[in-house]
Structures are given as structure tokens and as C-alpha cells.
Amino acid sequence: MIDRSYQKLSSLLTIITFLVLFSGSAGAVDLNSLVYPALNQIAIPEVEEIKLDNGMRLYLLEDKTLPLIQASVRIHGGSYLDPVEKIGLAEFCGELLRTGGTEKYSSDELDELLESIGGSAETSIDVIAGSLKLSMLSSYTELAMDVMAEILQRPVFEQAKFEQLMVAARSSVSRRNDQPSSIGDREFEKVIYGKDSPYARHTEYATLNAISRDDLKAFHQRVFRPENVQMAIWGDIDSKQIVELVKKHFGAWEKGKEPIPDFPKVDYQFDTRTNFVDLPDVSQSNVYIGHLGGRLTDEDHPHRIVMNNILGVGFGSRLFKQVRSKAGLAYSVYGVFTANLSYPGTFYNYVSTKSESTVKAIRMIIDEIKRIQNEEPTEEELKLGRDRYLNTFVFNFDSKGKIIERLVYYDFFGLPKDFLNKQMEMVKSTTAADVTAAAKKYLKPESLRILVVGAAEKLDEPLAALKNGEPQKIDITIPE
Amino acid sequence: MQKYKALFTALLAFVILLQPLSAPAATDFDFSALEKSVFEHSLDNGLKIIVLPRHDAPVVSLVTWVDVGGADDPKEYSGLAHMLEHMAFKGTATIGSRDAEKETKLMADEDRIFERLRLERLKGRLADPEKLKNLQEQMNKAIANAYAVIEPNAFSNILQSEGGSGLNAFTSRDQTAYIISMPSNKLELWMAMESERFFEPLLREMYKEREVVAEERRMTVDNRPMGKLVEEFLSTAFKAHPYGNPLIGHMSDIQNYSREATQRFFKKYYTPSNMTIALVGDVKPETVVEMAEKYWGRIQKRPAPPRIATVEPPQQGERRLTINDRAQPAMIIGWHIPAETHDDMPALAAFADILGQGRTSRLYRRMIRDEKAAVSVSSYAGWPGSKYPSLGVVFCYPAPGKTNAECEKMIYEEIEKLQNQLLTDEDLEKVKARAMASFIRGLSDNMGLAQQLATYQQIWGDWRQLFRELERINKVTPQDVQRVAKQYFTASNRTVSSLETIVEKASADKATATGETKK
After folding, report:
1. Distance of alpha carbon B438 from alpha carbon B431, whole angstroms
2. Do A14 and B185 touch (CB under 8 A)?
3. Is residue A139 located within the same domain as residue A229?
4. Burial readout B274-287 (b: 16 or more C-beta within 10 A, e: otherwise)
5. Cβ atoms of residues A166 and A157 within 8 Å
6. Quick one: A211 and A302 in the same domain?
7. What is the percent of chain A where pLDDT is above 90?
8. Residue B227: is its pLDDT beyond 60?
């Protein structure tokens, strides 16, 4: 059951005082005079949690507002398990689970069945987990359970569908350098985690050609086991009926023989590196500056959230004010500190700026990273940094799907149910000194890795002028 | 950049939004209760208010819907509706200035210098280069001076720090929309600020923002192959109606926008009677009306804006165009069809669904599943707009090693089948079931629902039409679909545009080198 302490949230939110960055006096509207009523109570619904004998976990939430049954299944295991010569294996498996047919339904039959009733079921597998999302009219509840059982337990990876997928996969490899920003996103992951890291690598013609249907079947056999599965179902459902149907369809599912290996560790040395991808034709550079990030469970992560909001999130942030508003060097500039549960995230700052101001913009960003370590935020900055989080907190609870999916995610990693609430409390009490301490502890302006995707010849200064390691060119030619 | 992306997505989303809805065959859910809980009110100045109270969570989705779009752009100022959407985030006389009095004066300086610069530029080759250079320098200085007395981004900042989520806006050919969700206790803040920006907008940073829009154009059209293709396609398909004009504007027009022209456009189209606000969430209608009277009621009633009289004349023969680019091939084919309110639209929507929407569609099965000629193919009825007569379109990306020409042939063959063979009732039942399910799903999302209510209010003059669409599609017969297939999808009524890859020998065959898949 969910912790009822969430309910005190409403009273907490109401005592947040209101102050507006507001100037001018002649207007008809005086925002400072507005008094807001208390926010209505956030009703946190009770989620029923059940564990089957075979280890599969079930989460149920009844909500009769609309005649829909919705499901979201999380499967532990992802592309981090791909053998090095078969990168793409997990991703293809995720795609074909739904589109490659099952023992009971051929791919055509399944498409026909779902589309004739306006139902949808889609699957995918990313780096750390698989997902199945289903939505149907609740009058088809039994069918919904049958379809999920087929997709998760008995996919057949039809040959024709496998071939169709290969055509699409080759096409996307061939199109992957069409946009500078997608080149940058892809290559910066490799700059941080290493080009062969399971958290950064990607398919090539060679790796996708090495994947066979038998590989897909073996991957499915290994990963799709009840102890790896968390199934959340909500909407216009009768919990008793769902439990019966789940037992009928999933009760006999056998446990796997061995547990899935843990998420690999990230081997990271803090150092300085400057990399570039040379695109002689472009007029704008895409720039990434950062280093390894952290985890959601780091004890002072809430302080880091406020710190990052002040540094790089939104219109009032230091990066935005300095690089865009004051210097006019960019339309888009921001900083992000991602904190995962499975493996360390990334701290990175992004700017897109015209070629001729690239090095200037990089210097400015590095200065701001240093400044947030040394210069305490003003009252106004601190307030903005906290309010951005606190005032939007209610949107963590504005749909049943968000509530139940977060519960599933936290439950997998063993987080307490009041985790988010505790985080919020800590954001609320963050001081200027906390912000500076978090910046000193987690940001390393002396050990930055920089990636520039742009036209090397057109830059305002050579990248070597940054003295951030010898600039290394990254070759993005697509290997045969 | 972000906004323009949203704008393009909105074009496609809008098509989907207007898809007709089907009969409640598979559920006995009673929609009339939902319909009855919708509250509407008009202020004396003509502003329309639509409220759907929903108290599941203490949040509310808020939409301001203006009946003006790219189609309404003045001839010499293409893209002005979109420019105005940008300007609406620049604050007001009371929000965003450090020194209002000084700012007024500095803005007047900008305007005066720009007018001289503009007139000199219009002399073309006869312009005096020295004078141009001098005026441009003065202009840059005036822009910098005006910028020094403003509080940049104050408007967005206030809303976001008070809990605003998903603050955004989009411009389509048919409308301009401003959207945000707020904690419901901040309703009054939104009422005050949203009304203020349309009561007393201050077009500050006008000349600086033009450069941002110009960058947007470079990014989304000039340097993006698909953006270029769309622009060329539409300007070829429409010879008379403004649906053929670029939504973001021609570069030369963008650089010619003045504050005065933008202000004039605002006065003409942002009249209260031309706007609807839709609110879905944790609010009480009586509170909404009370606040609306207080804040939106300040706006003076003004005459209704003019509407577009130009009607696209019947097309006299097929039109074709090709652009060459380094990117992979793609094609867009379009046929003229009527506006959303026309009686043929439900049948055309059914036709588009069966032809090219989803994994059971004719084009998917033939081109992606069976012949592996394409990696993506889809069709829509009512793009790039739906308020005026528009297009039925097919978008297609050929598979590696396959050509636009091969794909085009298959697309026509599948259309011919729909012209020659009558659908079964069962085929149509599926279309109706799909529409029904997606209608119900749409009801679960406050923001989506607020936008739908506003859309139907604009296009039909009555939000209730949202709930009438079911009846509309229920009347569609196989004969209707066949008739519209024959009537509209003819060779002489179509425009065919393709992007062909510039062949660089070394890399051209790479994607197809391993044509055989591993078994």
C-alpha cells in the first residue's frame, strides 16, 4: 500500500509563499496583490500490490472514470546484455515481441485483432529494461490479458517480420548522420561512457547482420522470466477478476534458471578531453560540456537539483541569462545533471551557437560552472531554483499512469514509498550554502569533457586554445 | 526552435484530432454526462469561455485559442501570425520592464531607425551602401539600448516559477494556440497574465526576435531536407489559396517585419470575439467566469476580423516537382479535398485510415510488410489545414535501395483498388471502432480535451460538435468511400513532390550492400 504521508503534501504546498519578479507600476493588473487559495488535496490512490508464487509482481489500481483498461509492464534486462558483436539484439527483440507474432496469433492476426477494436499494445527494450504498454476498452479485459500473456511468454519472431525489421534497421543506420544534433547526442554518450560501453554503443551494419532469429529467441528465453516482470494494470478494472486472469495466464510461467547479471559498473576517470566532429557545411555548432553524473539515491541529490536549476534550467538560470540573454550567443542553452538508479548519469551543458562564437560560448559556460562553486546564489536565485521544483510537484500526481509507473520503478530499485516526498522536503529546506556545497562536491570544472559538432574551419578560435586536452577528431563515417 | 517543432507536430496532430469518431459499439459508456458537465459562457466583449470541471487532481489545463493562423498572414508579411506568437511571450507594459517610461522612448527610436533602414533596403540595387551600413549600426545600437531596460523572459519566468508546466504555443495554418497547465490554486495568476498579454501586449525585442525566427527558419526549413520538401510541395499544390504560403515566412519577409505591421495584425485578429479560452481541470465554472469578467473583460470589443475569400480553383492537371539533397529519398503526394465541415469529410477520413494508417492499412501491408519497398508510409485527410479546402496526403520514405518512383506506383495501385472494389461493412466497422477508442482515450487527458473543445468551437462554431462526430461517421457507407476515392484521388487533382538523393558514388550503395538478410 502506498504511504499515506503523501497526503500532507497539500498543506505543505499551500504555505509556500508567493513572490513575483515583477516590475512596473502603471498596469491594471497587480500580480503582487494576488492571494491564492489553498491547493486542493492531492488524493493519492491506493495501489494494490501482489506477488505471484513464481516471482512476478502485480500492481493494481481501480479507476472507473473512463471505460478503459491500461497496462504497463516493466521487464528487467536490456541492451546492456547484448554481446559486443550483436549490438541491437535487445532492441530488435523488443520490437518483434509485438510485431513478430505469437504461438496463438500470427503477426497479421494480432494486428487485425487489435486494430479492429481500436486497442493498442506496443513493446520495446531500452538499455536497462523492456516495456509493454497496452490500452483497450475495458469490455475487452479478458482479451487484453490473453494478448499480454502471448506477447510476453510466447513470441515467435516470424521470419518475414524479422526481415522487415532488418530493412528498417539498415535504413536508420544509413540516415543517422542526417542531423547535427543527433550526431552530437550520440557521440557525447560515447565521450562520457566510452565507445564500447553498454551505455553508449549502438548498432552498425555488421552487428545487425550478425543477429539471427535464434539469437532473439534465446534472448527472450533468458530475460522474459516472471521474476523479472512487474505488471501494472489500472483503469476500469475489477481487481479480483484481474488477479484471477493473471494467475490463469501467468501462474504457470516458469522461473529462469539463473539471475540476469547486474548493471555493469562505469569505469570513469575524471580528466580533460576535447573532441570534435567536423561538418564543414554547417553554420552552427552543437556543443556539449560535462562529465559523469550521479545517482538518484545520492544523499544530497535534492541540493543538487536546486543547484542545477540555478545553473542551467529554464529562463532564469545563470547559463540562460549569461549566454543567451546577455551575450546573445544562443537560442538554446541549458545544463542538466541526470541521476539514474541503475548506473551513474551525466552532467552536461549544451549550447548551439553560430560557428564564429563557439569558443567564446564554451568559455562562458566553463566560467559559470566555476562561479556556481564559488559564488553563493542570491535569495532570488535560490527561490527560483526551489520553486521550479516545488510548484510543479503536483504534476507528479496528475495521472494514474504516472503514479503507478513511478511506484513500479521505485519498487524495482527498492526505494521507499515516501522517497519522492522526502526529496521534496529536502528541496524545500535547501540553503544557499547547500547549493554551493553540492556544486563543489559534484562539479569538476577542471576535469571537463567537451564535444563540438561543427565546422572546424569557421570557429572563432581553434579548440586547442581552450587548453582542455589535445583536440581529437571523431570520425563518424558509417562503417560498411 | 522548440516552438517551431511544436508547430509542425501540431499540424499532424491536428489532422488526427479531427478524425471522425465512431459509434459506441463496444462500450455502453455514457458520454452525455461528460457533455452536460461542460459549461460555456460569453463575455460582453465576445470572448468565449469553455470550462470542463474535473477534480481528480488539483491541476488545470489552460488553453487560449485564437482564430488566426498562417493562412491569414498579409501578402507582404508571410509568417507574421507565427512571429506574433513569439512576441506574445515578451511580456506586457507591466510585466518585463525595468523602466517603462524609458522603454517606450527607446522602442520608438528602434522603430524610427528601422523604418529608414527598411525604405533604403527596398531601393534594392539602387540603395546607398554607406547609408545602409550606417543605419544598420544605428539599429544595432538602438536594439541594445532598448534591451538594457528590460527584464528578459519575465513573463515565462513568473508562470514557470509558480508551477506552470508545459508552457508552450503553436501556430498552424488555421489557428494560434497558447497552452499551459497550472496547479489549480494559481488560476487567478493565469487569468491576470494571459489576459494582460492580449490586452496590452508590448512588442518588445521585436527586432531581436526576428533574428531568432530567421534562425528557426534556417534550422527547420533551409537546413532540413524534409522542411524544404514540405514548403515546395505546398507552394506547388496551392496556386491561389494561402495554404500554399510558408508558415514560418519567407526569409525576406521575416527581415522586413516592423513593430507597426505586427501591431496592426494583432489589433485586427486578436479581438475578444475571435478568441476562445478553454479550461479543463480542478476549477469551478462560477469562479472562472468571475475572474474572466474581471481580467478578460477589460479588453475592448472590436469588429470581427475579415475572413479569406480566395478559393483554390479546380486543378487542371498533375503537378510535379523534385528537389535534390544529400539526404535519403522521400516523397509527398497530395490531392485537393474539401474543408472539415464538408459532408464528404467523414468518408475521406475513413478512406485515409484504410489506405495508410496503422499496421493493417493497405499501404503498410503492401509496401512495408510484403514488398519491403518503404520504411514508412502514411496518409491523412486534411493537411496542412482543415478550416478551408485542403489536401489528402501520402508521406513515404522508401527503403534502402528502393526508389520514390517504385513507391509512387504502388501507392496509385492501392488507391485504384479502393476506387474499383467496394469495401465491406466489416472494413468500415473497424474504422469506426478505432475512432471510438481513440476518442475515449482523448478524454483522459485534460490538455488534449481542452484543445479539442477549443478546436471544435473554432471550426464548427460549437464545441458540442466534438460529441456529434460519432453520428457523422456512423453514416459513412462503403459506397461513400468508393465515391470520394474516385472523385478526389485523380491524376489531374494531384501534386507529386520528391526528394532525390544526390549520388556520391562511394557511399551510395552502402545501405544496400547487404541486401540479403541473415536467416
Report:
1. 11
2. yes
3. yes
4. bbbbbbbbbbebeb
5. no
6. no
7. 80
8. yes
Work out how many domains chain A is built from and give that number.
2
The model's confidence at residue A4, banded by pLDDT at 50, 70 and 90, is: very low
Contact: A41, B519; criterion CB under 8 Å: no
CA distance B108 to chain A (A): 19
Nearest to A20 among B92, B158, B195 (CB): B158
Closest in B152, B186, B440 to A137, CB measured: B440
Size of interface A-B (CB pairs under 8 A): 239
Q: Which of A42, A67, A388 sits opposite B440 (nearest CB)?
A: A67
Residues 6+ apart with CB under 8 A from A116: B360, B429, B430, B433, B434
pLDDT in tens, A35-62: 999 888 888 888 999 999 999 999 999 9
Q: In terms of pLDDT, which residue wins out, B34 or A129?
A: A129
A18 in Cβ contact with A30 (< 8 Å): no
Give A 13-42 residues with CB within 8 A of chain B: 13-14, 18, 20-29, 31, 34, 36-42
* Mean pLDDT across A424-443: 97
- Please say whether the beta carbons of A466 and A273 come within 8 A: no
Look up the ipTM and state it. Answer: 0.84
**pLDDT value at B366 more than 80:** yes
Which residues 6+ apart lie within 8 Å of A370 measured at CB? Answer: A445
B window 359-378, beta carbon within 8 A of A = 359-360, 368-369, 372, 375
Q: Which chain B residues are Cβ-neighbours of A135 within 8 angstroms?
A: 437, 441
Is A342 among the domain residues?
yes
Same domain, A325 and A373: yes
Q: Report d(CA A343, CA B506) in Å as an integer.
A: 40
Looking at the structure, do residues A242 and A284 belong to the same domain, yes or no?
no
Query: Are residues A378 and A428 located together in one domain of the fold?
Result: yes
Query: pLDDT at position A24, please?
Result: 34
Judged by average pLDDT, the poorest of A173-187, B130-144, B238-252, B455-469 is A173-187
CATH number of this structure's domain B319-503: 3.30.830.10
- Whether residue A15 lies inside any domain: the answer is no
pLDDT at B506 over 70: no
Residue A72 sits in which domain range?
48-250
* Residue A464 sits at the chain B interface (C-beta within 8 Å): no
pLDDT for B224:
79
pLDDT in tens, B107-122: 999 999 999 999 999 9
Residue among A171, A111, A177, A182 at smallest CA distance from B397: A171
| pLDDT tens by residue, A214-270 | 999 999 999 999 999 999 999 999 999 999 999 999 999 999 988 999 999 999 999
Last residue of one domain, picked from the residues A250, A281, A299: A250
> Cell digits for B174?
488555421
What phi, psi does A188 have (nearest 5°)? -70, -35
Query: Would you kindly state where each structural domain of chain B is located, as residue ranges?
Result: 319-503
Whether A334 and A448 map to the same domain: the answer is yes
Q: Which helix (H) or strand (E) holds A25?
A: none
Site of grid cell 510543479? A392
| Residue at grid coordinates 509556500 | A16
Predicted confidence at residue B498, as pLDDT, reads 98
Same domain, A338 and A419: yes
Q: Which of B356, B437, B350, B426 is nearest to A144 (CA)?
A: B437
> Given this model, what pLDDT does residue B216 score?
82
Are residues A243 and A324 both part of a single domain? no
Q: Are the beta carbons of A229 and A51 closer than 8 angstroms?
A: no
pLDDT band per the 50, 70, 90 thresholds, residue B302: very high
3-class SS of residue B451? helix
CATH of the domain at A433: 3.30.830.10
pLDDT at B275: 98
Report the 10 Å Cβ neighbour count for A238: 14
Q: Does A39 fall in a domain?
A: no
